[in-house]
């Protein structure tokens, strides 16, 4: 099952099953962005809208993008504020759904593990962002991936594991550097905030370098 079909199937149960990765990343997302100023937001991998309403309450405009039509339908059914535009798109292709230098914040939430070419994504994000704009990434921590963890769900007939790529921390920071970003904050998030326990989420906040 390819990634798009898998998320279309997963959409029906995504919000209701226990999912520590989903829930901890939502906490990280809100804490990291609590003091970041933004108005025009591009949310990549909006899924069922777990972060969309929070963004919409703070932003003038949110473009919420996902590869899965079923995930988007769930997000729309939850809430469709007037300042949110939902868009189905494949982010491994040129980002024609956003104008150049139009966003001051881009979100990538639990999506880059499915993307092999990080450099392309960072390049497209750099084009879409205004000078000085922010790029937030929240991902399953590579430490968890080293242990064999990956996105998976039960479809009623068994466990479906999605195709995933392991990206090391340096893969993110180097792709950022090559595309004109500086790292503002890098944080690691543990289950139950137990620093003696298992690392689950990596969050990184980048900023596009100011043009001189």
Automatic annotation (TrEMBL):
A GO molecular function held by the record: methyltransferase activity
Occurrences of domain Methyltransferase type (ranges): 42-137
EC supergroup of this enzyme: transferase
Keywords: Methyltransferase, Transferase
Pfam families listed in its UniProt record: Methyltransf_11
GO biological process, one term: methylation
InterPro entries documented for this protein: Methyltransf_11, SAM-dependent_MTases_sf
EC number: 2.1.1.-
UniProt xrefs under PANTHER family: TRANS-ACONITATE 2-METHYLTRANSFERASE, TRANS-ACONITATE 2-METHYLTRANSFERASE-RELATED
Protein's UniProt name: Class I SAM-dependent methyltransferase
Protein species of origin: Hymenobacter humi
């Amino acid at each position: 099952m390819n990634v798009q079909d898998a998320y279309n199937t997963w959409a029906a149960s995504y919000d209701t099953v226990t999912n520590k990765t989903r829930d901890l990343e939502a906490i990280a997302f809100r804490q990291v962005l609590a003091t970041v100023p933004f108005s025009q937001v591009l949310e990549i991998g909006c899924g069922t809208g777990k972060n969309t309403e929070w963004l919409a309450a703070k932003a003038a405009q949110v473009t919420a993008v996902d590869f899965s039509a079923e995930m988007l339908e769930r997000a729309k059914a939850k809430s469709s504020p007037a300042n949110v535009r939902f868009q189905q798109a494949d982010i491994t292709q040129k980002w024609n759904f956003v104008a150049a230098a139009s966003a001051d914040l881009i979100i990538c939430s639990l999506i880059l593990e499915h993307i092999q070419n990080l450099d392309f994504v960072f390049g497209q994000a750099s084009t879409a962002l205004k000078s000085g704009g922010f790029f937030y990434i929240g991902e399953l921590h590579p430490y968890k991936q080293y242990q064999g963890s990956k996105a998976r769900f039960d479809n009623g007939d068994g466990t479906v594991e999605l195709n995933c790529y392991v990206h090391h921390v340096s893969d993110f920071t180097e792709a950022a550097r090559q595309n004109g970003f500086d790292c503002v904050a890098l944080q690691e998030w543990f289950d139950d905030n137990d620093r003696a326990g298992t690392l689950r989420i990596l969050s990184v906040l980048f900023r596009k370098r100011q043009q001189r």
